[in-house]
Amino acid sequence: MASPTYAGKGLAFCLLFSACFLFLFQDVNGYEPNWKSLDSRPLPGWYDDAKLGIFVHWGVFSVPSFSSEWFWYRWKGIKAPPVVEFMEKNYKPDFTYADFGKEFTAEFFDGNKWADMFGKSGAKYVVFVSKHHEGYTNWPSKYSFSWNSMALGPKKDIVGELMNATRSRTDLRFGLYHSMYEWFHPLYLKDKASGYKTQDFVNAKTLPELYEIVETYKPEVVWSDGDWEAPDVYWKSKEFLAWLYTNSPVKDTVVVNDRWGSNANCTHGGFYTCGDRFNPGVIQKHKWENAMTIDKRSWGYRRDAPLSDYLSIEELLQTFIITISCGGNMLMNVGPPKHGQIAPIYEERLTQMGSWLEVNGEGVYASRPWTYQNETVTKGVWYTKKTETSGTSVYAFVFYWPDTEILSLDLPQVSSATKVSLLGYPALFNFHTRSPRGLDISVPPIAVSKMPCQWVWVFKITAVEN
């Protein structure tokens, strides 16, 4: 299938643009375009403290809103039968994917409402999809010509509107996702056919777009994707990151992931993602992120998704707590429909997450993994810690409220100064030490109206000796 229109007359300009930026690296006095130098950059501290981010997948794929955000590829790439049958049943034979563009109307999109909703979730950063693998840009890119949100569809700079709303109405850090490749772009397909010996697509499209979004929107997260078919040398990733860390307007605060080439995943970059929905359940040596979805099956909106395909708040919280206990952040995805009004199921989950964090955020934000990640004697208990001048406090996240009057924990080594409390509840709890270590917490009957939250309760144990 022919891809959306790409104006060849801009190719020479794009190549010159890219070359001018690459020239900067000859005089870089900061980070050099090699992994040893780039990987030596400390991850800005705000990211590890934040713990929770909101991911937003929105684009032309939100129009068919069937199968997933990979709709076009499944239709014209691998020709998946359900998608082919869907198109044959509902659209005329000569309908193209580009025809969906004008139906990406975004008439209910309101950046202020989105920003307010994300702010209420308790998240500390948002990562918006500026361009997915379909190539459509949610900003008026000079390098996407007629295939962008100002030229076709919403007739808006969606990235700009959301950025302004986020920064003016919340304390969330604003970040952008960007796909390195595009399924059906002719320049990419040409480079691929050459075995990636040519780099016309990178020089004309990928790099110019990356520089453009950084210079224009100053994202504090640059979340790369679509890199896996070619190595970092093809993408010129190291050159871009050297500029990003040394000369860009966000050089001191920006964080990046690890998707910069087929040889970089889970090996190089800022924080590691290693794969979608990565949640190893054990502590990792390097800072990592669990990029996951509220809809279990898709990153984009699906009109035919049943309620059972959405994670419950209990499932979300348990996933989140296991993630942070093992040193990760969680990037929780919502997929808005084409009109831009975020569906109530997503709004409910975000609001529930925010209400829980209002009570229990002390054990989450700026916490660190403890010596032990989860309890051995009682199922469904995970830990974080905070260390201050007064000592170490351990936070025990209890997935299931005790069905007896005793909560047994085998791992914390308490001291004579230890106190036990339940976050959001005013009274201290009595406890007895276990042998050789641990404690039995006496849990009195608490009226439902006095419970600090509805799901996952957090016990704070102070003055822990290990």
From TrEMBL:
Signal peptide as annotated in the record: 1-30
Domain of life assignment: Eukaryota
InterPro entries recorded: FUC_metazoa-typ, Fucosidase_C, GH, Glyco_hydro_29, Glyco_hydro_29_N
Classification via Pfam families: Alpha_L_fucos, Fucosidase_C
Alphabetically ordered keywords of this record: Glycosidase, Hydrolase, Signal
Gene3D superfamilies tied to this protein: Glycosidases
Similarity comment: family membership: Belongs to the glycosyl hydrolase 29 family.
Name of the protein this chain belongs to: alpha-L-fucosidase
Organism: Aplysia californica (California sea hare)
